[in-house]
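Regression check, A1CAB case 272:
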Amino acid sequence: MTQIAFIGGGNMATSIIGGLIKQGESKPDMIHVSDPNADQVQQLSEQFGIHGHSDNQQAIASADVVIMAVKPQVMKAVLAPLKDTLSQRQPMLLSIAAGISLTSLQSWSGCEAIVRCMPNTPSLLGLGASGLFATDKVSIDQRNIADALLRAVGISVWVQNEAELDAVTAVSGSGPAYYFLLMEAMIEAGKKLGLSEETATQLTQQTALGAGKMAMEADVSAAELRRRVTSPGGTTERAIQTFEAAHLRDIVEAALTAASDRAAELSKQLGD
Ligand SMILES: NC(=O)C1=CN([C@@H]2O[C@H](COP(=O)(O)OP(=O)(O)OC[C@H]3O[C@@H](n4cnc5c(N)ncnc54)[C@H](O)[C@@H]3O)[C@@H](O)[C@H]2O)C=CC1
Ligand SMILES: O=C(O)[C@@H]1CCC=N1
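Current build output:
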C-alpha cells in the first residue's frame, strides 16, 4: 500500500487525511504528517492514529507520495532542506498550494513526477471540488493515486494544461466565497424586508443547499431549473429582470477573470 507523507497538517491536510481514512483509501499506519505546530501533530495522531512528526525529513523518509500542504509563501523555504532526499528518492510530489507553478515545484524539490492540484474548502466536509494537472513524468498508477487522494474529499477533475488551473482557481477554488457573498447579501436584504436575522439566515442557507442539490441531481441545465421557478408575470421574473438590468453576468465574468488573472500573477510572484 502507498506510503503518504503530508508536509503541513493544517485545514486542508486534516480534511484529506480524514477523507482517506473514512473512505478506506488508506490505512492510518501508512500516513505520516509533519508540522512545526506540536499541538496540531498530536491532535492529528490521536484523532486518526497516523504517524506524527515535527521533522519533515522523518515524515518523507519512506514516502511514495509527498503532499505539500503548506501555505504558498513558505513552499520554497520548506522544500529547500528536503531537496536532496526528494531528488534521490523521487516520490510523487502533490502540491495543493495556490499559485505555485510546476516549474517552481520541480526546481525547488528536484522531483520529476509532480501533480499540481487546486482543491477548495468544502473538502473539509467531503464536498470539495479539485482540479488536477500532472507532468508527463507522472505514471498512470501515480495519477490514479493522486485522483483517489482528492476524491476522498470530493470530486476531482483533470485539466489539459497548467494554465487551466488558474481558471479552476477562479471557478471552484475561490468559488465558495462567491456563494457566501450572495448569501450575506440575501440575509441583509431579507432583514430589510422585515425578517429576523435568524429567519433570514435559516431560509437563505436551506435555499442554497436545496438549489445546489437540485442542480446536482437534475438532468436539465441550471438555466432550465431557473425557468421552472420563474412564473410568467410573477415574483422571480421581477428579481431576475433586476439582476439582468444590473448586468450580473458581466459582473460574474469580470470577477472570475480578475481571480484567474491574480492566480497567474501569484505564480509569477511566488516563482523563482
Ligand atoms: N483554504 C483554501 O480555501 C484553500 C487552500 N489551498 C491551499 O492549501 C494549502 C494549505 O492551506 P490550509 O490547510 O488552509 O492552511 P493551514 O494554515 O491550515 O495549514 C498549513 C500548515 O502548514 C504548517 N507549516 C508551516 N510551516 C511548515 C513547515 N516548515 N513544515 C511543515 N509544515 C509547516 C502550518 O503550521 C500549518 O499547520 C495552501 O497552500 C493553500 O494555498 C488550496 C485551495 C483552497
Ligand atoms: O484566495 C486564495 O488565494 C486561495 C486560492 C483559492 C482559495 N483561496
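Comparison notes: The first helix runs from residue 11 to 22. The pocket of NAI (ligand 1) is lined by residues 7-13, 34-37, 40, 56, 69-72, 74, 78, 96-98, 118-121, 173 (CB under 6 Å). No diff flagged against the previous build.
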